[in-house]
Amino acid sequence: MVICTPLFSAPAMAAPDARALLKESETRHRTKTQQYSGDLTVVNKEGKVRKKGWNSYRQGYAGDSKNLIRFTDPPEVKGVGFLSLPRPGSDNPDQWLYLPSMKRERRIAPQDRDASFVGTDFNYEDMEEFDHEKYKVSLQGEETLDGQPCWVITAIPLEKGSKSIYQKLTLYLRKDILYLVREDLIRKGEKEPAKRLVLSDIKNVEGHYVAARMEMTDLKKGSHTTVTLKQISFNRPQPASRFTLQNLTREGGD
Amino acid sequence: MRTALLLLLLLALPCSALAEGFSGYAEVKGFAYGERFAGEPYGAGWGTLYGKWEQRLAEGQFTASLRAEWLTSPQTSPLVFDPADRKLRRPPLSAPELWLRVPLAPSHDLEFGRFQLGWGKTDGYSPADAFLPRDLTDPFADEKLPLWAIRLSGQEENLRYQAVLVPVTTPWRLPPLGSRNAPIASGALPAGTTFQEQDDAPPLPGFAALRLLATHGDWDLGVWARSGVRPAPILAFSLDPAMQTGPVPVISVGRRYPREHGVGVEVSRVAGPYVLRGEAAALFSADRELGDALIGTLSVERGFGDGTLLVTLAGNAIDPPVDPTLLFDRGLLPALIVAWNRTEEWGAWKLVWDCGLERGDGLVKAEVGYNVTDTWKVTVGGDLPYGSDQGPLGALHGARRVVAAVHRSW
């Protein structure tokens, strides 16, 4: 899973402008590489729990990032790999899936953006890295969440007939570090948020802020998905051979 | 019975991974058939205990697995040492994987040992995959057999290669002839015919193969070539007067393993929400009962939510010279294969329709899996072969069945 939300941090500004805040934050939180191991827990409305574990490697940032995910648990998905490589001149990256049961990689088509990502409350659009340039953004005011003063910014997809499944996002940024701590997502044709993403357990790892816990709640279904990040590191050199199909098809490899 | 009790006990025990890198499962399956077949009972059972050990060795990798099985039907061999799966029947104890990978350079690997191969682009039927040995003990499971092999593989930029040397023939494993799982048309032989299968030793040499792959934009391209012993046997039936001791004919069945050479091309591309795949292969053999083949496949795949719909069309431009029901990989052609699977919050389901286009026979397969927990799964399903028994799937009408399975992994 790509951490798609290490958005912003900026010094205090006298008259902040939403776009400036977003730009400054993106600049501050940009890293060359990132790797972590993660646990993913899905709890449905009846309280039934499903867990998955994986290792994630990223090189690059935003639209030019390469990503490799390898599932480690439960046994049914152990060894399943997902590789995403940017394609110059295209919004859609090249994506491959390796299934150990088939012993070969399969190229996959861009998914329906509203489809659930591996059975979680995240959909494929939620997994994309937020690019504020594709939104009309405006500062709505200030609010305090968990004792932390936050900027509240609304983001509306720019294009008419946009591919986005959302008509509006409401972003809550911690003022002190300009890091996203909450996001409310309103679907097209609806007035109330359908989902809420809350980022917590924010740590400073190797000079970079990162939320070690992300929880996406489906406010209508009553289910939620929690992602916990462990052994996080940034800017470690990644071997060029990590983001290759040859590596994707290595069983027992990264 | 003692094995079955042990398996049930292991299924119920609160096991967890014994050490890092160790995983496995226990599974109990039950089959209920719609009809009796030549004295075979209405039901059958199958239990499996599987363990896999994976170990990183610096940049290398070692993997070993062991499988123990118990089948109520007489489809397993006695407990004999059969490391290359060359016997007629499934061994009750086997080592599906035993391999070591040594990196020669960052993107170039050497692997040797016992492992499975997967080639080809098209799912459902792939001419690049069809030459690999299969275990048809369960004719609807389509399980590949592992090989003893050496594989050199690597990548430079957008080019990849795989060179495989398989020194020993691992033959296809077929269901016992005369059983409900063997695709022999009713009426093809006199009623009550019994088969005397000869446990012929397959030829020792295996095959060599090379595959080159390239990715360019939306396109994935590949070419391959292979040469060696074809692991799917040609069956030779003979009526030996010395064996006719009663009123029922006794037919002796031998197996031949012709040599075959093949070249193929494969292509796939992403087109919006679709993935299109195609393959073509030319196969040559001097064996007049096998003959040549020109096999083409086309498939289209599309994701719908957490599911995938896959349609594959496969055909052979040259009719096989022998009874196609007995030429197991080519007898299915031409065929239309439709598969739809989907993951749900509670589990998963799949539907498969495999339709023979020439003889009008086919197979409808349905399966629903319920995840009781992350490690416990209950599956129910059914396999319904239908149509003319002159086709390889229709000839399996006696194997119509309902399947239920309990699976526990760790």
Topology:
The complex is a heterodimer of chains A (254) and B (410).
Chain A: H1 18-29, E1 33-43, E2 49-59, E3 66-73, E4 81-85, E5 94-99, E6 104-108, H2 124-127, E7 135-145, E8 148-157, E9 166-174, E10 180-187, E11 195-205, E12 208-218, E13 223-234, H3 245-248
Antiparallel strand pairs in A: 1-2, 1-13, 2-3, 3-4, 4-5, 5-6, 7-8, 8-9, 9-10, 10-11, 11-12, 12-13
Chain B: H1 2-12, E1 22-33, E2 43-57, E3 60-71, E4 93-105, E5 108-115, E6 134-135, E7 143-144, E8 147-156, E9 159-166, E10 194-197, E11 207-216, E12 219-229, E13 234-238, E14 250-256, E15 259-271, E16 274-284, E17 293-304, E18 307-316, E19 335-344, E20 347-356, E21 362-371, E22 376-386, E23 401-409
Parallel strand pairs in B: 10-14
Antiparallel strand pairs in B: 1-2, 1-23, 2-3, 3-4, 4-5, 5-8, 6-7, 8-9, 9-11, 11-12, 12-15, 13-14, 15-16, 16-17, 17-18, 18-19, 19-20, 20-21, 21-22, 22-23
Main features:
heterodimer, A: 254 residues, mainly beta, 13-stranded antiparallel sheet, 13 strands, 8% helix, globular, disordered N terminus, B: 410 residues, 18-stranded antiparallel barrel, three-stranded mixed sheet, 1 helix, 23 strands, signal (chain B)
Could you state the order of secondary-structure elements of chain B as H and E? HEEEEEEEEEEEEEEEEEEEEEEE
Q: Count of DSSP helices of chain B?
A: 1
Residue share in β-strands of chain B = over 45%
Number of strands of chain B: 23
Cross-sheet strand order for the largest sheet of chain A? 6-5-4-3-2-1-13-12-11-10-9-8-7
Distance between the termini of chain B: 24 Å
Hey, roughly how much beta strand do the residues of chain A contain? over 45%
Largest β-sheet summary of chain B: 18 strands, antiparallel, barrel
Order of helices and strands of chain A: HEEEEEEHEEEEEEEH
Strand-pairing-aware structural class of chain A: mainly beta
Shape descriptor of chain A reads globular
Taking pLDDT < 50 over at least 5 consecutive residues as the criterion, the unreliable ranges of chain B are: 1-19
Structure classification of chain B: mainly beta
What profile does the largest beta sheet of chain A have? 13 strands, antiparallel
Portion of residues in helices of chain A? under 10%
- Low-pLDDT residue intervals, each spanning 5 or more residues of chain A: 1-13
Per DSSP, the total helix count of chain A is: 3
Report the C-alpha radius of gyration of chain A, rounded: 18 Å
Radius of gyration of chain B: 22 Å
* Residues in helices of chain B, as a percent range: under 10%
